[in-house]
Design goal:
This protein is about 25% helix and about 20% strand. The chain is of the alpha/beta class. The longest helix has 16 residues.
């Protein structure tokens, strides 16, 4: 007796998918358009567009706000009929980053960015930000702060998720009545100088203070708490109105990151994954990673595949480790689904720069700009110090590293050409090594056009239906 292992195709097509809110936001905060859009916000957007006389404006929405995109576009079109509006979805890299690549396809004059943002871009296209407006009880927040810090002389620094930026002035005024030494973090615009990440501190340093983050336990809190060296860290959760002690450098997370650093030290090929084209200094960071790898004789490949996921990077099986050059709000560093280790630029710096050898960092940073000369985690790199490093043993493989080292000559190559270098073998033999050999020796290299070599194929009707039961399968039965 034949048994059909299949489900109802109608049920599969009609199934409703539950959308997960982005950036740690609760669903109640984006349940309706009022969570980010009202008459006042619309007037601010319209005045900004009219004042600067923009004619082509792109409206960038994250996936969670796309259901409201047409309503916002129609209202702005009625308010400014002389301007053209374009809705941007499915962003090139991450929804927190301004998608100037997609905006350039329509020669846009400006962008209005909706939802959560990392504010890590360089100034190119003018951008107006519209944040989510999270629900927050200011009186209960002030009461929680007063109970936790009864001493008004406590040094306190307050940071927050961007969805609560609209009420920070009133919170700062009320907290200022109780605390004498209070620093309210200020989100810096793209053209302003920043102390770290997207924050600007004016009154006192956040270090050696009790720091509080207002928001959910998301990537923003992770980045801020690991970037600021504070006496203690607290997090105020607006959904529960609770102020709790937080441990930024979780021991389990640290052990996993140091394991990846060891894997990065063992790598013989390094993939530099470029996940941003708008963050300031990304090209300088790519060049620095190449210099670090070159000094150790490690091959590097620059990869740009848009939004990063495990399936895309699994196509590069020959690469031992990947270094992600992306915005700080990227949450890929906490994922365990990747086939090969995915490390941050700072972790690559810890693995390859002798200046960090024997030093334990007192804080972590996912912001790659911190390792540049203007950053707080910058350490000069001396290629000669690599050759004088003592041999050590890998904690992962047990193999000896840096036991023997030969002089490597690598000529400068133009962009797009395969880099070649001469390696000294035993008995004074020379071998030519190309960085593209690993991919050229594959048995399958992907789909090829073969223009002029293959005869034109006859156009035929393709399959229709859903993968579990195509129409031609029904006809065959």
């Amino acid at each position: 007796m034949a048994v059909a292992f299949s489900s109802n195709e109608a049920a599969a097509l009609e199934r409703q998918l539950e959308s997960t809110p982005e950036d740690g936001q609760h669903s109640v905060e984006i349940a309706n358009i009022k969570s980010f859009w009202n008459d006042q916000v619309q007037k601010q957007c319209s005045d900004w567009i009219l004042t600067n006389k923009y004619k082509k404006v792109c409206l960038q929405f994250p996936d969670a706000l796309l259901p409201f995109s047409t309503t916002v576009a129609e209202q702005l079109q009625r308010a400014i009929p002389e301007a053209e509006f374009f809705i941007l979805g499915d962003t090139s890299y991450g929804s927190c980053c301004v998608d100037e690549i997609a905006a350039s396809h329509v020669s846009a004059d400006a962008i209005v960015h909706f939802g959560h943002t990392c504010l890590s871009r360089s100034v190119r296209l003018p951008t107006h930000y519209v944040f989510l407006r999270g629900q927050l009880d200011v009186d209960r927040l002030v009461a929680a702060f007063s109970d936790k810090f009864p001493d008004g002389g406590t040094k306190l620094a307050v940071f927050y998720d961007v969805s609560y930026a609209y009420c920070m002035d009133s919170i700062g005024d009320k907290l200022g009545e109780h605390f004498k030494c209070l620093t309210m973090g200020k989100l810096a615009a793209c053209e302003e100088a920043k102390n770290f990440l997207s924050w600007k501190l004016e009154e006192l340093s956040a270090e050696n203070s009790s720091c509080v983050f207002i928001g959910h336990d998301n990537q923003s809190f992770f980045n801020i708490s690991n970037s600021v060296k504070a006496e203690t860290w607290f997090r105020y959760d607006p959904s529960t109105n609770s102020l709790e002690l937080a441990d930024p450098l979780n021991s389990k997370w640290l052990r996993r990151r140091f394991y990846y650093i060891e894997k990065c030290k063992d790598a013989r090929s390094l993939g530099i994954v470029v996940a941003t084209l708008t963050a300031d200094g990304y090209l300088d960071v790519v060049n620095r990673v190449q210099q670090l790898a070159k000094a150790r004789g490690i091959r590097t490949y620059i990869i740009s595949v848009g939004k990063i996921n495990p399936a895309k990077l699994a196509n590069f099986a020959e690469i031992d480790c990947f270094v992600l050059v992306g915005c700080p709000e990227n949450n890929l560093f906490t994922s365990r689904e990747f086939f090969k280790p995915l490390v941050s630029v700072f972790e690559c710096e810890l693995a390859f720069n002798p200046a960090w050898m024997g030093q334990f960092p007192d804080r972590y940073s996912t912001n790659f700009a911190e390792i540049l000369p203007s950053g707080s985690l910058y350490r000069p790199f001396d290629p000669a110090a690599v050759d004088s490093e003592a041999a050590d043993v890998s904690l992962v493989t047990g193999m000896v590293r840096n036991a023997t080292r030969s002089e490597v000559e690598q000529p400068e190559t133009s962009a797009g050409s395969s880099s070649q270098q001469l390696l000294v073998r035993g008995r004074n033999e020379l071998a030519t090594v190309s960085s593209g050999d690993a991919f050229q020796n594959r048995s399958w290299q992907g789909l090829e056009q073969n223009l002029g070599r293959d005869a034109p194929a006859v156009v035929v009707e393709g399959r229709s239906g859903i993968p579990i039961k195509y129409d031609n399968d029904l006809n065959e039965k």
